[in-house]
Amino acid sequence: MKVDNLEVKIFETRQEMGAAAAQAVADKIREIQDTKDFVNIIFASAPSQNEFLAALKEEKWIRWDKINAFHMDEYVGIAADASQNFGYFLKVRLFDIVHPHSVWYLDGNATDLDAECARYADLLEKNPIDIVCLGIGENGHLAFNDPHVAFFDDPLVVKQVELDDACRQQQVNDACFDTFDEVPQNALTLTIPTLLKAKYAFCIVPGEKKADAIYHTIAEDIQELYPSTILRKHPNAILFIDKASSGKLKEISSYSQA
């Protein structure tokens, strides 16, 4: 299935989806490693990525010592070793296991957050991104670009944002926090243009709670109210979804699994 430029692949289970996404990313990494010394990759931190990350770390023939890793967002004020910290999430699930050449963490505890955004932006500018592995939020956000701050022509590379209520509630729904009030109100995020600068985008979105977001991604006009719709303009983007997250696509008259 293809919607504008976006290729959509549907799988029966989360495990099948994660394995297929990992295979596709691994193949692209190996392809790029044949042509350049280092591959620069942005990773997402969320439970939706668990199956993908678990499969990716098992992929053979990836030269992790030739990979530079970034992550796309971080809470402000969460301890670096807290389970909810996005850098720590990736550290324990992937980076400490596969040992990339470089891992650049976004520091949500920096004394000067503007300077931290500038530091990370400089790293991204000096290491152009080859691959972005991302998800889609329940509100359609990419990274922490919730609808009210998801500017398709954002002049910034990395910025501070205030999270909307839907985004904060999702963190409770995902069992990352026990209560809404525990979820930080502020975060740092790579902007939409920064994410889309990646030459290849692999978007992994399982689960029934994401069914509305997937429907909007595919059915709505491309607009900032539904940030994920911008993926349909990327020249090399693939959306991996499972049966649960694809559940509302049947409501689209033109929908076909072919």
Automatic annotation (TrEMBL):
<dbReference type="InterPro" id="IPR037171">
    <property type="entry name" value="NagB/RpiA_transferase-like"/>
</dbReference>
<dbReference type="GO" id="GO:0019262">
    <property type="term" value="P:N-acetylneuraminate catabolic process"/>
</dbReference>
<dbReference type="GO" id="GO:0042802">
    <property type="term" value="F:identical protein binding"/>
</dbReference>
<dbReference type="InterPro" id="IPR004547">
    <property type="entry name" value="Glucosamine6P_isomerase"/>
</dbReference>
<dbReference type="GO" id="GO:0004342">
    <property type="term" value="F:glucosamine-6-phosphate deaminase activity"/>
</dbReference>
<protein>
    <submittedName>
        <fullName>Glucosamine-6-phosphate deaminase</fullName>
    </submittedName>
</protein>
<dbReference type="GO" id="GO:0005737">
    <property type="term" value="C:cytoplasm"/>
</dbReference>
<dbReference type="InterPro" id="IPR006148">
    <property type="entry name" value="Glc/Gal-6P_isomerase"/>
</dbReference>
<feature type="domain" description="Glucosamine/galactosamine-6-phosphate isomerase">
    <location>
        <begin position="13"/>
        <end position="233"/>
    </location>
</feature>
<dbReference type="GO" id="GO:0006046">
    <property type="term" value="P:N-acetylglucosamine catabolic process"/>
</dbReference>
<dbReference type="Pfam" id="PF01182">
    <property type="entry name" value="Glucosamine_iso"/>
</dbReference>
<dbReference type="GO" id="GO:0006043">
    <property type="term" value="P:glucosamine catabolic process"/>
</dbReference>
<dbReference type="GO" id="GO:0005975">
    <property type="term" value="P:carbohydrate metabolic process"/>
</dbReference>
